[in-house]
Amino acid sequence: MADIEKSGAQYDEYAQERIPSQDGSQEAFVTQYTEKEQRKIVWKIDRRLVTLTGLMYCASLIDRTNLGVANIAGMAKDLDLIGFRYSIITLVFFIPYVILQPPSTVLCRKIGPRIHLSNITVLWGAVMIGMGFAPNFKVMSGLRVILGALEAGFFPGCVYLLSTWYLRYEVGKRYSFFYILGAVASAFGGILAFGLSQMEGTDGIRGWRWIFIIEGALTIGLGIAGYFFFVGFPDDGKTYWYFLTREETRWIVDRVNADRSDAQLEPFTFGRFLRPALDFKIWGYALIFFDTTTVTYALAYFLPVILEDGMGFSTGAAQCLVAPPYVWGGIVMYATGWFGDKYHIRGPIIIFNMVMAIIGLALMGFTKGVGVRYFGVFLAAAGANSNVPATMAYQANNIRGQWKRAFCSASMVGFGGIGGIAGSLVFRSQDAPAYHPGLWACIACAILSIVVVCIETVFFRIANNKADRGELRVEGGEPSFRYTY
């Protein structure tokens, strides 16, 4: 930390000199690096940070959503999951997942991602192996609670970490690629789970149990790799020793400061951390994320069941047909992330995704042909999942300050966990095979997201107009900082 906080003269000697911008609104900087060298530095970050967090998030998604595949592979019968027991197993995960997000995000900032994120990954991998030996419904429920407590800090920690390394109009593509690795790979987790379930009877262990055992072992391996390859925050003064040079690290910190003036960490106080709770916009982002994850989790947990019971596919086909819609979703996700970064827009991307999800959900539930209904799955999965990184970018572009970022990441992803609880309950067994009430609930969530984006857009436009007249400093930042809508 001391190295990065050197005097201005020492800083400029290594990185760049500062000059006033033409409009006098903020300082610009002239770097010693060529454009090609700058791209190379950012590529180092992409290769190390985005890829690793994406792969580990893939394990996280697989480990929390593989219940649907295990359920139709024999878990429901062996654990006597009658009535609401399956829904209970899915939703108890989210109680500690929501409650522990804020303290876990603070802990990630204080002790560093390398220790925090890699250790909790190893621990939840061990819990997954334990789930493979769960003898009954009660033990499985308890293990799901522990899993939720351990995973609570991972996703918001990653969202926060990524936001500290990139400029406002670089994060859309990075969030998309991060989530693509997780969402698309976890979709193929259905095919992996189908293959693992074919180990039925090996060493006297049921096939669905092998799903948890093998996937848990893979998660532990990723967690161990994360300990050696994770990077910290750009201002922590440690990263360049094994990842970037001093000069490159200082350049990263300086360009972030030039973009939004919040690269350095303020001292922690509970007041500074909790003050953003008074900002209504923060809860708008959280509500959009709740709506989005309600749909994504509902599809993740129940799509195999819908394909089997509602559309008439066999168990094996249902497990495998989950993957193609998520592959298409990955393409849409990256395309919308790229478009949003290039043209500096966020709200219209969210609205586009939600309209796509509404059309897809309507086709799934209110048409007759299996082909058309399955096409609806493509639209619903693409629209809902693409909105996860889109909402993350929307939030990241419109806040300033390290602890505000930490609070916003925790609150937004915490509401995503509440969406997971809702998604665990919207598709009820008594509504089979059409599941119309669940589909209507998902459509309502998509419509609500559109409404919230429209309200926030009006506010952003008014605030930006006031800033243009010199009546307001947006988010208390530089005179040139503006909301992105």
Automatic annotation (TrEMBL):
Entry GO terms, CC: membrane
Location of the protein in the cell: Membrane
Principal place where this protein is found? membrane
Keywords, A to Z, come to:
Membrane, Transmembrane, Transmembrane helix, Transport
Q: Where are the transmembrane segments?
A: 82-100, 120-137, 143-163, 175-196, 208-230, 282-304, 316-335, 347-366, 406-426, 438-463
Q: Which GO terms describe its molecular function?
A: transmembrane transporter activity
Q: Where is the Major facilitator superfamily (MFS) profile domain?
A: 49-466
Which InterPro entries has this protein been placed in?
MFS, MFS_dom, MFS_trans_sf
Coiled-coil annotation: which residues?
none
Topology in membrane: Multi-pass membrane protein
Is Magnesium tagged as a keyword?
Answer: no
Under Pfam families, the record lists:
MFS_1 (PF07690)
| Source organism superkingdom | Eukaryota
What name appears for this protein in its UniProt entry? Answer: MFS general substrate transporter
